[in-house]
């Protein structure tokens, strides 16, 4: 279940999968499922091909769930 309090993130900040899960209070598998369903957008770092989430997308997703 997603946290009841709004995540404390900066709108232009980039957050790793772990940081995003911690901010939203969900498991990484749940975040992966939400990403695959298109409920939250992610980007890929060019150098490492790792996913990241923007703070504004985290807030937008959280507000849509409440």
Structure characterization notes:
By secondary structure, this protein is α+β, with helices and mostly antiparallel strands. It has three helices and three strands. A three-stranded antiparallel β-sheet has the order 1-3-2. A hairpin with a 6-residue loop joins strand 2 and strand 3 (51-54). The protein starts with 13 loop residues before the first strand and ends with a helix. The mean pLDDT is 95.
Index terms:
42% helix; globular; alpha+beta; 3 helices; 66 residues; 3 strands
Strand sequence of the main sheet, in spatial order?
A: 1-3-2
Round the Cα radius of gyration to an integer and report it. Answer: 11 Å
Relative helix content: 40-55%
Structural class, please?
alpha+beta
What is the multimeric organization of the chains shown?
A: single chain
Q: Main sheet, how many strands, which sense, barrel?
A: 3 strands, antiparallel
Low-confidence stretches: none
| Beta-strand fraction estimate | 5-15%
SSE ordering: EHHEEH
Label the overall shape: globular
Tally of individual helices: 3
Query: Gap between N and C termini, in Å?
Result: 11 Å
Mean pLDDT: 95
Number of strands: 3
In short:
With 66 residues, the protein is an alpha+beta fold. The protein has 3 helices and 3 strands; from the N terminus they run βααββα.
Task: Detail the topology: elements first, then pairings.
Elements lengths: L13 E2 L1 H8 L3 H9 L6 E2 L6 E4 H11 L1
Antiparallel strand pairs: 1-3, 2-3
């Amino acid at each position: 279940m997603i946290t009841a309090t709004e995540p404390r993130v900066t709108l232009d900040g980039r957050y790793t999968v772990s940081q995003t899960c911690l901010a939203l209070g969900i498991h990484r598998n749940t975040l992966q499922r939400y990403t695959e369903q298109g409920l939250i957008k992610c980007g890929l770092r060019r150098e490492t091909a790792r996913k990241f989430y923007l703070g504004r997308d985290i807030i937008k997703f959280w507000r849509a769930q409440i």
